[in-house]
Amino acid sequence: MNIKHALFAIPMLAAPALSQAATVDVTITNLTQGIYFTPILVTAHSGDTHLFQVGQAASPELQMMAEGGDISGLVGIADSISAVSAQNPAGGLLAPTEYTMMTDWDTGTNNQLSITTMLLPTNDGFVGLDAWDIPTEAGTYTIYLNGYDAGTEANDEIVNGGGMSGVPGIPANPGMNGGMNATGVINTEVNSMIHIHPGNVGDSDADGGVSDLDSRIHRWLNPVAKVVVTVK
């Protein structure tokens, strides 16, 4: 069991154990009140493989996703290890309180599950599930996911269309419910490793202040996502 994530298992009584978790349903729900998820990458892969690891430096591919929502680099990594991936199951942004579902997903012989998606609007925040062991016993399993900071960009909270790796700023505020002309919350990232995201600071100044984000809308507490996996 991956102890980095809260896991509750409700096995189906009298169900035979499976030799492989071959077919699953996966439902991902956005638990926030004002944060959107960019295109989601759901990957089933073999053991000893990670798309990210807390406490380690972000790869360039992880940075692309966390700063700009671009999952193509991570897809390339997954393809190179013969993983089975579901790209953008929501068909775009996943709005607050909304969910997306994958039904009868064939994971093949892969026995671990990873999920990544950018938190928007943030500078380099993302939702992550790192190499969770897919149960071999049929049943329904619920996992709550944290928001992580990639450690690759200062959380200045300035919405300026940035999004390319190494370019400061937030790509967009999809809810159009923040401010503008912010001076910036911070200009230096003190923790360059992947870590729990400190959360948005925000302010209530629509034309100035330190942040372009609204403190009444864009702040959050973990967990930020709920994942339900049904092993068949």
Automatic annotation (TrEMBL):
<keyword id="KW-0732">Signal</keyword>
<dbReference type="Pfam" id="PF06468">
    <property type="entry name" value="Spond_N"/>
</dbReference>
<dbReference type="InterPro" id="IPR038678">
    <property type="entry name" value="Spondin_N_sf"/>
</dbReference>
<dbReference type="InterPro" id="IPR009465">
    <property type="entry name" value="Spondin_N"/>
</dbReference>
<feature type="signal peptide">
    <location>
        <begin position="1"/>
        <end position="21"/>
    </location>
</feature>
<protein>
    <submittedName>
        <fullName>Spondin domain-containing protein</fullName>
    </submittedName>
</protein>
<feature type="domain" description="Spondin">
    <location>
        <begin position="36"/>
        <end position="154"/>
    </location>
</feature>
